[in-house]
Design brief:
five-stranded antiparallel sheet; 17% strand; Arp2/3 complex 21 kDa subunit ARPC3; six-stranded antiparallel sheet; 688 residues
Amino acid sequence: MATTPSTNPAGIGPASVPFFLALIVAGLAGNYFKFPIFLNIDFLFGSIFAMLALQFFGLGRGIAAAAIIAGYTYFLWNHPYAIIILTAEVAAVGWLIERRKMGMVLADTLFWLIIGMPLVFFFYHSAMHVPLTNTSIIMVKQAVNGIANALIARLIFTGYALRSHSVLTSYREIIYNLLVFFVLIPALLLLAVGSKTDFAETDRHIRTTLSQDSRRVSDRVETWVMNRKTAILNLAEMAASRSPQQMQPYLEQTKKSDVSLKRIGLVDKEARTIAFFPLIDDLGQSNIGKNYADRPFVPILKQTLKPMLSEVVMARSGVPMPMVAMLAPVVVGGEYRGYVAGILSLEQIREHLAKSTDKHAMLYTLVDNNGNTIMSNRADQKVMTPFVRGKGTLSRLDNEIDQWTPSLPPNTPPTERWQKSFYVAETAIGKLAEWKLVLEQPVAPFQKTLYDNYTGKLTILFLILLGALGLAELLSRRIVLTLEQLRLITHDLPGRLATESKKIPWPESGVQEANHLINNFKMMGYLLSEQFDEIRQINESLEQRVEERTRELRESEEKFRTVADYTYGWELWETSEGSCLYCSPSCERVTGYSPEAFKTDSGLLERLIHPEDLPKWKAHHARVHYDPETREVRHGFANELEFRIKHRIRSGTSHLEPGHHRAQKPGGRGREKQKSGGPWYSGRRHRP
């Protein structure tokens, strides 16, 4: 990926504290208004604004914003681990951006692969003991969520940077992020829409299946109860007109013809048995004459005079054990005269319930009108004990179905809560609703199926995302390759055109806009090359002319030197810096010094000037020197000066000779005249 500018590129300072606080508020709102992907797996948007804070305000305040924004997840998911993970995400991404000059999306991807996903596995599976299936889907979901949020945050910041021109943005990074965006976001939306459909279908399937199973099983139990009721009711009607001795064979016949009847007895109005089959119980004791006046169903029979199912009670015939009975009152002339009791064997119902509920791991419980358990396949329920699920909440879903959610520790994720919940259907059994059949469908098997399905889908999406990141990297490199080559070629283009105009390897592109740009540079290079050729030709012509002028000047100078060498007067030429350029041989006659002495000793002339004339000589000499910048003679003074010089040998002491000095612009000549008791000696002084 193209390198990303360091954090805080926009240079936003303390005056933007309101903007920083606005990002935090927006991040909290992004976590509150979550987007459900499927089941209780939600996408949060808070880290978008944490990443924006990182880009606008730098690493320190970015981490602070991430910690505050992630704090809401404690109230959302009832555990602090997401705060650690989401804060570490911003810290790691900011460090990679600043220290490794890495793109934000790539940095976030590396965080989740190397740090984030292992942290999710450790906290959820190891610390909170979330099942591996749930941990896997949470791990992949949070990684996809984090990368998607980093991508959106980077695109938002890029839009701001392009609009405000506050920071340069890489064209390659824009292409990279857009390619990933248009792969990831549609896939997430399709996954979310599909998951909602699948969840609704699963919820509908659970409710429909549970309702159908409840009706089918309850109808089967009702039929079974009705068959037992019919037999017992017939015996009660017969007992109204027959003696106990006459009823004994009918009791025996009915018992032997129905395997669901363990025992049958006829009880008089004082609740004592007067006929019974079998006559002797398992302990060898007679079943005749036993009193059941304390049974709770006796007052109900006397009051309703209708057949009913009994609650679960402890048997008094044979080995004491829980039992239920089908009861039918014996009514003579509208008065209660006793009842017939058929002690029921519930093995057929148990087998049918087990077979009906085994497919979907459904739980069943049959309870009496006191709420005590008659039979159940729940491990936590015992016969003759109150039916209690434990602490939890029962919510009504529709007319037939409720949902029970257990109370779990505060740090239990919502997915775990939903997994441990039950869909509940309750159906009354018996005309007087003496019994109640409770069917409970655990969500766990269906959630596991959905989780396995969507873990696979999310994993595929995550792999597609990683593939999209790699493909976007290659495509973005390929797209900007021509521009990168053009940038390298056009770097110091004038210098290259001047040295290798015919050898520049211009890139080629099949993209129209890039091709136009390349052609424009080619045309510009061609025009520059022509101008360079023209300049080169002009330079060559100028060099030739300079060379010719130099040769002519040299020839002229040689001629002038020849003339100066044979003049009677003394010629002294100085440069603008005051050094001797030329001194004619006449100097030795005038001063007693050779020309070489004046060339090697620039102060010799001043020492030969008479002390009285030296001050005006120095003043004059300073004025006639040329300006070093303009190379012009200073004006406003006499260009001629008369002064006296001393001969080195003559008269032994100071021998004074009057003379004068003349100065001109460069190329001009001055004249000096000196007298020594004889004729005047003239001299020339030249300043080039």
